[in-house]
């Protein structure tokens, strides 16, 4: 029948059942349970951002408030089970429930829980991520000093996990490691930017390349150029996705073995390129959301065979206790979409040899296959722990790949010939073939010509710290043209007033500040770690960078009159805070509540301690800091750092709506607002916003507009008209916060081009 205008998809596929029954990937006696699980919708899973100091508070809030409200609840005749933590995920930071996404979105009884999830997800405190997708980053064993490459990163949930692991110690604003997140699809790269931006890290760079031919990057080590090898690589390759049938029901009718046969070559090329760029002793995790050995064990076996002992599969049986897994298989066959089976390459007729390749078959030599330890691969089956299907293999690199063994010699020869210029080590442009160890005569000639014809302007821009898009001759540019990344020169007059105004520590790494414009006024200042600065400066011509850096300062249109043209940005405050020694106001929890619920509260509303602190302070941007009191265990027990603005008679916080809601929830303030018709209130708000926008110059930063408005309002609003917000109802609080945030939503078309490329609210999709 037809439901909602669409035919019901029948969850049957005879070829799928025939194929996997024959391969024996499911233990004896479990087939019916396996198929039954595939036909059930996938449970909703969520992960709490682990490195945030608020993780414990969010977990407490979830367990004590939202989960308890789900007890004994029935939705559409189905009893809602209490959410359970994933037994194998550390510190109870991942949870699953039998609620599907559809029920969560549509059910009025679950509206409060759904609002909580959406709001906290936007803040970066929670990620809604499939359970099996959380496994690969955990098996990478990331430490804060690791250089990490995520080869096929979009949409970015695994990348977010990697960033969290880098920031395991919140007291270190700049970990030594970094994540370079790559995706071949330009539009999906902006999804990736959106995910990464939620975590506010200076250690992430998003790039746009074909993973199978991602270029070798260089870094400067003690004045000499060296090829960058990664300590950890996540290789989550494109796949047929038959492990995702529970959420992507289209797979039921579209599935054939042809998908796997077509993807195998690409998967092998990407994996080969990955291990080439892995440092010796490094770890690479290869994963797919497919159950097919052609995409899984066949790729790993082929990689191990041609590595000639340079790679080995790691035994991770003791890692992630509680995770039910099946071992990798050592025997399989190849089937065409017409159902024809082949057990050996020699049986494949010549007219089929373009579809089926030798690397798709298992190795016949018993000793070789035994030495590969393919049983160390992980197969996750849906019926074992109510998840999707998944495959993971963890590879360790013991020595250089056989075709790269003389790589250091090539590096030295090229350096002698071309001087201190870019060097590209021999790499594989076809994953299934070995690359020659020495560069050919033609390659050397081409390298010489390239150096001779190098544009002097490019050399000059390098010296000035400009990292622009690569020249079109070397790389075709697809998608949106990116603005350059321009590092602030050491003697830039822009920095001195900033340093003085905020009393920045002498250790502040000002060389890591950058902007996205070469000409005109610098409107935003961003920050990267010194390791990413090194990567950017040495590779701008061979790499298409979509985004990097965290916003730390924004220009005020009239900031100079307050002693500094730049105000602090909330996105980067946790990175900046350790270096700031002035303009910090310590506030109590009642003050924080006022700041988060009132648009522009008068100073008289705050505690006498706060009033005394701001009395002698000049107008302008400030830091508002809340430190928990251990003697008051009922109060919020995690620190809060907010960016604010001190006016003549008022104090305010520059915080987004969802972040305001987050902090208020953590403090026990009820912020839920049921959906109701409030046309009058909404239209009034809309009119006010439109009027405000009309008064401001197009292209100004949204928060600057708010600041200008506040400065004018201060003289106009009588102090008596304001009421204390702390006693307000949940509806009033929500309305106030929406008013505070409304201008952000309506100003997208007025935001500068620079902001478009970088702010998470303007994802190019």
Automatic annotation (TrEMBL):
PROSITE patterns per the UniProt record, alphabetical: SAM_MT_RSMB_NOP
Chain segments carrying region Disordered: 404-469, 675-765
Active-site residues, as the UniProt record annotates them: 289 (nucleophile)
Name of the coding gene: Nsun2
Protein's UniProt keywords contain tRNA-binding: yes
Keyword annotations: Methyltransferase, Nucleus, RNA-binding, S-adenosyl-L-methionine, Transferase, tRNA processing, tRNA-binding
GO BP field: tRNA methylation
Superkingdom assignment: Eukaryota
Keyword tRNA-binding in record: yes
One Gene Ontology cellular component annotation held by this UniProt entry: nucleus
Biased composition (Polar residues): 424-433, 743-752
Cited InterPro entries: MeTrfase_RsmB-F_NOP2_cat, MeTrfase_RsmB-F_NOP2_dom, Pre-PUA_NSUN2, PUA_NSUN2, RCMT, RCMT_NCL1, SAM-dependent_MTases_sf
Similarity comment: family membership: Belongs to the class I-like SAM-binding methyltransferase superfamily. RsmB/NOP family.
Enzyme kind, highest EC tier: transferase
EC nos: 2.1.1.203
Catalyses which reaction(s): cytidine(49) in tRNA + S-adenosyl-L-methionine = 5-methylcytidine(49) in tRNA + S-adenosyl-L-homocysteine + H(+); cytidine(48) in tRNA + S-adenosyl-L-methionine = 5-methylcytidine(48) in tRNA + S-adenosyl-L-homocysteine + H(+); cytidine(50) in tRNA + S-adenosyl-L-methionine = 5-methylcytidine(50) in tRNA + S-adenosyl-L-homocysteine + H(+); a cytidine in mRNA + S-adenosyl-L-methionine = a 5-methylcytidine in mRNA + S-adenosyl-L-homocysteine + H(+)
Domain SAM-dependent MTase RsmB/NOP-type, chain residue ranges per copy: 34-398
Protein name listed in UniProt: tRNA (cytosine(34)-C(5))-methyltransferase
